[in-house]
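Quick one: co-fold with 4'-deoxy-4'-aminopyridoxal-5'-phosphate.
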Amino acid sequence: MTRAKSVANRSATADSLSEADALRLREDFPILKQLIHGKPLVYLDNAATSQKPQAVLDTLTRYYTTENSNIHRGVHTLSALATVDYEASRTKVRRFLNAADDREIVFVRGATEAINLVANSYGRQHVHEGDEVIISAMEHHSNIVPWQMLCQERGARLRIIPINDDGELLLDEFEKLLGPRTKLVSIVHLSNSLGTINPVEQVIAMAHSRGVPVLVDGAQSTPHMPVDVQRMGCDFFAFSGHKLYGPTGIGALYGKAELLESMPPYQGGGDMIKSVTFEQTVYNTLPYKFEAGTPNIAGAIGLGAAIDYVTAVGMDRIAAYEQELLAYGTQRVSSIESLRIIGTARQKGGVISFVVKGIHAHDLGTVLDTEGIAIRTGHHCTQPVMQRFGIPATARASFAFYNTKQEIDALVRGIDKAIEVFS
Ligand code: PMP
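Sure, here it is.
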């Protein structure tokens, strides 16, 4: 049996959302009611960013309408309200990730800033000439470039865990890369371009047995599967709110308290200090030490609303339903003869990347757009993945719990139409 078929044959689990649930939940997302080029919008670009439920939109409006003010320093009522809501969102993030302490949650702009924070703070503190940082061949540019910059500055070496033709990590090769010079491992949880779900617990156990800390890039996993940072055992975990049905410009870095305590600040400014003289600055406690300047207050509160929303739906049920969409989608697109799926790992999230013989991904995406279907085309900020598979680009359909099998049918009809147009 091919990999594609074995994914397609995975059976639905009992605690999945039903199609009727998905249709009901769609009603919470006003943008999905739009027509694009006169056709119902079929939004299959959720790995790039997901749509926002009314509850998140209402929270942003309520915040700006009734309590907008700066946090932490004001004695007035609005400032107190905004501070309480901002900090309540931190607690929501902490619970969502099952971190042990609110002090371990640092609000940042998104996964990119979270990774840059660790590279610039922990990285500069611990990575020196001749040291090594390990990432994998399927990383997003945001989990490559910060490490490359650090390694260049320090005279250190970036080592890459290779992947097989299905897009799975080669753990034997990883074992060989781990050594006395390894200072950090940074690995994606769910690949945005291949859909692979990496065995992060195993990676972490292997790294920890050598005393090496691990950062997990959870930009794609947090919206689509339950995450428990304590069970996973990671040292750092990064994610973005906008992929989790929340606003753009907000995300969080989880870090183990003892690690964050030992790290220098990443940026200097207001709020990250206890006291300042021209001679010396005493830094604030966690997590404020890493939150210089006025943060994205509305964004953090909106992210809290998004977490409330997905928690009420149930991350387990979301994950199970998206597995059904993945299985159905994999089976449907596999029936197209000239189509090849890129990324056929045994453990996958709801991402189907593919190429169609004789049609450039951008042309395919343009034809699909005329049908109201939004997919992503290009290298998905993972150019080394494209190099690994010897292709310039893929077309990528990525699912959320508000998608349906009928939308996958529309995608397949759209691909068939593109094949007709370009044949
Ligand atoms: N990592 C992965 C796996 C991603 O898919 C993305 C976004 N495409 C990022 C990191 C970066 O996220 P952001 O642009 O929200 O910082």
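If it helps, Residues 77-97 form the longest helix (21 residues).
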